[in-house]
Amino acid sequence: MHTRLEVRLGPLTLKNPVMPAAGCFNSGGELAQAFDPGRLGAVINKTVMPRPHPGNPPPRLAETPSGLINAIGIPSDGPEAFVREQLPILRAAQTTRIVSIGGFSPGDFAELAGRLAEETGIDAFELDLSCPNHNGRGLFALHPEATREVLRQTSRQAKGIPLIAKLAPVVTDITEIARAALEAGAVAVTVANTYPAMVIDVDRGLPALGNTTGGLSGPAIRPITLRLVWGLGQALPELPVIAAGGIETAADALQYLLAGARAVQVGTALFYDPLALLRILEGLEAFLERRGIDRIEDLIGAARRGGLRTDLSREGSLQPGG
Amino acid sequence: MQRPSPQSPEVVNCRQHRPSPTWGLHRATVVSSFPEVSSYHRLTILSPVIAGTSQPGQFVMLRTDRWAPLLLSRPFDVMQVDPAGETFDILFRVKGEGTRRLAASCAGDSLQVLGPLGRAIELASGPSPVGLIGRGAGIAPLVRIAQECARLGMQAAAFASARAPQLMPALAELRRFGVPATLSKDSGDPAALEASLDRWIRDNQVQRLYVCGSRRLARLARRLCRRHRIEGFGFADAVMACGTGLCHGCATELAQHRSGTEDPDPGSPDGPGNSGRPRARYALVCVEGPVFPLDALVLGADDASRQEG
Question: Residue B52 burial (CB < 10 Å; 0-12/13-18/19+)?
């Protein structure tokens, strides 16, 4: 029964498909006072940068209808402070620990992965190839070749720790970039980061964000990211995908799983509901129970295989988007 | 969480504040919803946890039950608590969709409250009389300090600024807590304002200042604190998403990094070849504030309009 929610993600086995999105969870210490992060399918830190990095000037946030634009810019105290202060918190969670790393050159990622691979308790690296908040620097996932180069160099230094590539949503063909990541050593991709966006404060007549532009997240982007996941599943059916984009409820997570994602990340919702991850996890369990589905693996990609069996003798339904 | 370097004296000062107690996500009920002067609004909210455990300086994140397409809860300073009645009050200016919805809530309506959040002010161990300088809704958290001063038997005095005296909400609350309030009409003359603040500090023998609601007043207060060699603290303002330190959105720049001598980070946008300015460093208002020593805050040029009211 305890394996009902278990999902395979390349070489990794997650106890369930629900995890936070990098940058929205720190290392789990804050939310640990509300629930045990070890219940999650995985935990993931706020991206560590190869050198101390201050992040962007305020204002860093602008709310839009059903959305949030952030221009945080990945503040990080660098790898040594991460190992000292954050990794122990991540390690305390009895689940899969993914370490999110960033950088401004392929060498940055390789060096950082090499340094962190010396530490115990890291089950995978997620490479942030797609942060829109550095004015174009570090946006490797815009190009297949740049993506390939980061993966190639990093996989040589990562001492066998699996690599996950976090992709950018606004590209001509995300399939090409995912394929490049896969060929160069990624075991999975995260689809996707935030969408480049901005707001102008009409009162001041100036961009609302200190960084001028930022990245849009929240339920506003969910249908767009869902279609990216759908398209990838069509083009690269064997590619393990972690979906990230506007998930607030179990029904949202189910949409992504039905489209073919093997796991989901929850970000923005944690800002207004610290219990969102737990709610989604419990909602998935309840859905399986209600629909008589033995294993969550059975519904992954089901939307492209004829959907779910509708058994009218069972009570309840769950409307997508509800 | 981004941690400012421990050697900076301002941050050591911040650390004198008590760490935040455990926050929680609570259901709460509107007890009364009352429009005040101008576009201010006051809510009395039934929440045994916030009423019983929140400390001066702390805040809550609030939302109504039907909030979409709004996403983020809104931060509010606690104006006063009634532990016996299990209620707390907030005072805010209606200026956007979120505050409009909250102002439209009626007695009996249900709210979601996240809190208490932020670092509490350490009042009992510091010098007094305590001076409270506020403008507009910025008076709200000062009323909470006044309440605590009254409870502790500490002397306090308030200096309230507005365009017109009738635009100053919550003056009755200050009186109720026995705190004399000096009213200042905003004459637009900085020298006159500084002179009257200076006089107010001397007349009331203020030994410690808290300022909220105006950067211009905060800059003046900082200058006067230095002149009179007294402690000064300001409530930092920031656009905030989570209140719990997760999002790193409510960053405020710390003053000491403006003149820092450390090597600029070549990997940062502020590195060499950009402006030559030392790397900026930020504190998170939600978990390291919202109250900071005035000397630690970057209060900017005369852009007080952003924060006032």
Answer: middle
Residues of A with Cβ-Cβ distance to B73 under 8 angstroms = 272
Which among B239, B246, B248 has CB closest to A55?
B248
From B1, B279, B281, residue closest to A26, measured CB to CB: B1
Cα Rg, chain B, nearest whole Å: 19
Contact B290, B57 (CB under 8 A): yes
Identity (one letter) of the amino acid at A73?
G
Around B168, how many Cα atoms within 13 Å sit in the side-chain half-sphere? 25
Tokens for A232?
């990838």
Residue B63: beta bridge partners? B112
For the stretch A215-273, pLDDT in tens is 999 999 999 999 999 999 999 999 999 999 999 999 999 999 999 999 999 999 999 99
Find chain A residues with C-beta within 8 A of B70's C-beta. Answer: 63
Distance from CA of A51 to the nearest CA of B (A): 7
CA-nearest residue to B72 within chain A is A272
Residue recorded with tokens 């007043």 = B217
Select the residue of B248, B268, B279 nearest A72 (Cβ to Cβ): B248
Do the Cβ atoms of B61 and B113 come closer than 8 Å?
A: yes
Residues of B in contact with A73 (CB under 8 A): 269
Three-state DSSP at B30 gives strand
Q: Which of B230, B226, B203, B206 lies closest to B130 in space, CA to CA? A: B206
What are the tens digits of pLDDT across the range A36-72?
Answer: 999 999 999 999 999 999 999 999 999 999 999 999 9
> In this structure, is the dihedral angle defined by the CA atoms of residues B14, B16, B17 and B20, taken in order, positive or negative?
positive
Beta carbons of A51 and B265 less than 8 Å apart: yes
**Chain A neighbors of B2, CB-CB under 8 A:** 54-55, 75-77
In terms of CA atoms, which chain A residue is nearest residue B242?
A271
Does the N-terminal peptide bond of residue A274 adopt cis geometry, omega within 30 degrees of 0?
no
Cα-based torsion angle of the residue sequence A164, A170, A171, A177 in order, rounded to the nearest 10 degrees: 10
Please provide the distance, in angstroms rounded to a whole number, between the alpha carbons at the two ends of chain A.
27
Both structure tokens of A316: 């309840």
The pTM of the full predicted model, rounded to 2 decimals, is 0.90
The first and second tokens of residue A38, run together, are: 């070890």
Question: Is 0.85 exceeded by the ipTM?
Answer: yes
Rounded Cα gap, residues A127 and A41, in angstroms: 18
Whole-number Å distance between alpha carbons of A138 and A129: 6
Contact yes or no for B61/B74 (Cβ under 8 A): yes
Residue A33, both tokens: 């006072």
